[in-house]
UniProtKB/TrEMBL annotation, chain A:
SUPFAM superfamilies the UniProt entry points to: MetI-like (SSF161098)
One Pfam family per UniProt: BPD_transp_1
Source organism: Marinomonas arctica
Residues of the ABC transmembrane type-1 domain: 70-259
Taxonomic lineage: Bacteria, Pseudomonadati, Pseudomonadota, Gammaproteobacteria, Oceanospirillales
Gene3D superfamilies: MetI-like (1.10.3720.10)
Listed transmembrane segments: 7-32, 70-93, 105-127, 139-159, 180-205, 240-259
Protein name listed in UniProt: Carbohydrate ABC transporter permease
UniProt-annotated location(s): Cell membrane
TrEMBL record, chain B:
Lineage: Bacteria, Pseudomonadati, Pseudomonadota, Gammaproteobacteria, Oceanospirillales
Keyword line: ATP-binding, Nucleotide-binding, Sugar transport, Transport
UniProt cross-references to InterPro entries, sorted A to Z: AAA+_ATPase (IPR003593), ABC_transporter-like_ATP-bd (IPR003439), ABC_transporter-like_CS (IPR017871), ABC_transpr_MalK-like (IPR015855), ABC_transpr_MalK/UgpC-like (IPR047641), Mo/tungstate-bd_C_term_dom (IPR008995), NA-bd_OB-fold (IPR012340), P-loop_NTPase (IPR027417)
SMART domains documented for this protein: AAA
SUPFAM superfamilies in the record: MOP-like, P-loop containing nucleoside triphosphate hydrolases
Matching PROSITE patterns: ABC_TRANSPORTER_1 (PS00211), ABC_TRANSPORTER_2 (PS50893)
Organism of origin: Marinomonas arctica
Protein name: sn-glycerol-3-phosphate ABC transporter ATP-binding protein UgpC
Entry GO MF terms: ABC-type maltose transporter activity; ATP binding; ATP hydrolysis activity
Domain ABC transporter residues, every copy: 4-234
GO CC terms in record: ATP-binding cassette (ABC) transporter complex, substrate-binding subunit-containing; maltose transport complex
Domain of life: Bacteria
Length: 274, 325
């Protein structure tokens, strides 16, 4: 490697660290400071480390609201992801394998789902009519609807890379259409399924605005909304707010760190063909 | 085992006629090869027999039963695909037994039949491997095993050897012929490779542009081609075909002579020409000769025949070996 290349690499690394790592250091440091120190919002070293005290305070705040929020967010994420993966894989399979005159219209709908921003008030009105407003399963359906277009496109392009001969071999072997899908195609969708699970679960788990609109109520709190609650309650206690940020950031962060390669693999698979 | 009877099969895709009225009987236990150039409709015809594709019109009978509207599974057929189409996530054992497990056969029976098929194809040591861990020839054998295990009445092969290298292809040709002899099953085999057709078939069906040009045994097609297309398609190198004076001399539109039915001599003969190119194959040499009155003429000579490009040579057709159309 040439000297100039090394210098360029080091400069890129320093910029990268400044942009991506500094915020995490700031969160980490503020989260362990005392209330007074944290209110200065600086990158200074804490005079005393209050990690455990702040952690307990955040968890106990508002009658263990954070734990309830974790439970709610987990239910929403798991429920939405399960529905999303199964329905997106099936839709992707059908539109890829069975071209019809409706395909153009279906694609238009999928693209509309990606491009047109959701209208909140009519959605709330619809949810109310369906008695789904302020319910976890209503929230799950919202998340499925919002994530479906992207997931269908990922599945569709991946399925395009699976030879049609496999479907036909299964049909010759006596498989019914649902058996072709569940016994032959679905097991082969593992890479893209993992990608969809990771990307969408992080999105849904981190979602702040949608639960804010569609899931009001103290019992319905999700992890990101606990930040909102803290901000009003402890407006001067930035240390607790940042400890809370730290706690709700960790699960998605871990997923990204461990499954980073898998995400890229699933995103690019099927990109060449189809 | 069963006969396959096709009656007036037509197929259209978006108004384009792919098959234009195919009538064909494949007898019980026969090894029938569909051969023809790319796009002649041979694979489409096989897919129509399998039930993967519907005929626009016409009927298909397998074993005296009209199966035109039946699902593939109810036709008593098994198919081997060009790409092998093995299920990548299943082991060889599960690939072979997939059809039986779908049919909800008892586990002991599946095991027994899979083992029997594996033994026949020498796959016993590979049963627990995944398809990605197998060579091309092994994958092809697994695909054949998957067909055998279902004990179908008719085997369908869609260019099964075209992904293999030349040496393996020749080996698999022999294996398939032996398999046919062992099972004595009706087999329909699609290929564009006339060597496969000639070496394996009991009956060859030559297809061209959606219709049957000729049906016959390999030697019938070789010795008595009924159309110029068959004459040109069967045999390698292909038959020399000439219009014009030479054809008129024999009161025909087209005069044909196979390269192996030309005798070459440096001194005398019927046609004098100049050697343009020589393809040396070892045992044989394919000689391309330019003859003033005919154009390019291809002859097969003995590998030891001493000749160089640019030299003058005489070619003489062997008596009674000419083909007239």
């Amino acid at each position: 490697m040439k000297r100039q290349q090394i210098i360029n690499g080091v400069i890129a690394l320093v910029i990268g660290v400044l942009i991506f790592v500094t915020p995490f250091i700031f969160i980490g440091l503020t989260a362990v400071k005392s209330a007074a120190e944290a209110s200065q919002l600086g990158l200074s070293w804490p005079s005393e480390w209050l990690f455990w005290d702040n952690l307990v305070a955040v968890i106990q705040a508002r009658n263990y609201m954070l734990l309830l929020a974790y439970f709610n967010s987990t239910v929403i994420t798991v429920g939405a992801i399960s529905l999303l993966v199964i329905s997106a894989a099936m839709i992707g399979y059908v539109i890829q394998r069975r071209p019809s005159k409706w395909n153009g219209f279906i694609y238009a709908l999928i693209l509309a789902g990606l491009m047109i921003p959701p209208a909140v008030v009519p959605t709330i009105w619809l949810l109310k009519e369906l008695h789904l407003f302020k319910t976890l399963h209503g929230m799950i359906l919202i998340q499925v609807a919002y994530g479906l277009s992207f997931s269908v496109l990922l599945f569709r392009s991946f399925i395009a890379s699976i030879p049609r001969d496999l479907d036909e071999a299964a049909i010759i072997d006596g498989a019914k259409p649902w058996q072709v899908f569940f016994k032959v195609i679905l097991p082969l969708l593992k890479p893209v399924t993992v990608t969809v699970i990771l990307v969408q679960s992080v999105t849904i788990f981190n979602d702040f605005t949608n639960p804010l609109y569609y899931l009001p109520g103290k019992d319905n709190v999700t992890v990101q909304l606990t930040l909102y609650n803290f901000q009003s309650q402890f407006s001067s206690q930035m240390n607790l707010l940042f400890m809370n940020i730290l706690l709700v950031t960790i699960p998605p962060l871990i997923m990204f760190i461990f499954f980073n390669k898998q995400i890229v693999k699933g995103m690019t698979a099927g990109a060449v063909k189809g | 085992m069963a006969t396959v009877r096709l009656k007036n099969i037509h197929k259209e895709f978006n108004g384009v006629k792919i098959l234009k009225g195919i009538d064909l009987d494949v007898n019980d236990g026969e090894f029938c090869v569909f051969v023809g150039p790319s796009g002649c409709g041979k694979s489409t015809l096989l897919r129509i027999i399998s039930g993967l594709e519907d005929a626009t019109s016409g009927t298909i009978e397998i074993g005296e039963k009209d199966v035109t509207k039946s699902d593939p599974i109810d036709r008593g057929i098994a198919m081997v695909f060009q790409s092998y189409a093995l299920y990548p996530h299943l082991t060889v054992r599960d690939n072979i037994g997939f059809g039986l497990s779908l049919a909800k056969r008892p586990k002991s029976e599946i095991k027994e039949r899979v083992n029997a098929a594996a033994e026949m194809l020498q796959l016993e040591s590979l049963l627990d491997r995944k398809p990605k861990d197998l060579s091309g020839g092994q994958r092809q054998r697994v695909a054949i095993g998957r067909a055998i295990v279902r004990e179908p009445e008719v085997f369908l092969f869609d260019e099964p050897l075209s992904n293999l290298d030349a040496a393996l292809r020749s080996k698999m040709r022999i294996e398939l012929t032996e398999l046919h002899a062992t099972l004595n099953a009706t087999m329909i085999y699609v290929t564009h490779d006339q060597i496969e057709a000639m070496t394996m078939a009991d009956k060859i069906v030559v297809l061209n542009a959606g219709h049957i040009e000729q049906v016959g045994t390999p030697m019938e097609l070789y010795h008595h081609p009924q159309t110029p297309f068959v004459a040109g398609f069967i045999g390698s190198p292909k038959m020399n075909l000439f219009e014009g004076a030479i054809a008129k001399e024999h009161n025909a539109d087209l005069y044909g002579i196979r390269p192996e039915h030309l005798t070459l001599s440096p001194k005398e003969g019927k046609w004098k020409g100049v050697v343009k190119h020589i393809e040396q194959l070892g045992a044989d040499a394919i000689v391309h000769i330019h003859v003033e009155s005919l154009g390019m003429l291809v002859a097969r000579a003995d590998g030891d025949f001493s000749i160089t490009a640019g030299s003058t040579i005489y070619a003489t057709p062997q008596e009674g070996k000419e083909h007239l159309f």
